[in-house]
Design goal:
The chain has helices spanning 36-45, 57-60, and strands at residues 9-12, 18-22, 28-33. By secondary structure, the protein is α+β, with helices and mostly antiparallel strands.
Length: 61
């Protein structure tokens, strides 16, 4: 499969406050943490696979 069937978006600010957004639910926050590794672990526990790459917040506007 060339593209994932379901995508979640993990965004963190410079203070490591992280939120996981669900684009399929109008970008609803589905998880929040003040630690990047905790957010990453939450995604991995649900068997999400990372897609390499980074976006700046300005690129989403």
């Amino acid at each position: 499969m060339l593209s994932p069937s379901y995508i979640l978006l993990l965004l963190c600010n410079s203070e490591d406050n992280c939120q996981v957004y669900d684009p399929a639910q109008n970008y609803k926050i589905v998880f929040s943490s003040n630690d990047y590794n905790a957010a990453k672990l939450w995604l991995l526990e649900d068997e999400y696979q990372p897609i390499e790459g980074r976006l700046l917040g300005a690129e989403l506007v």
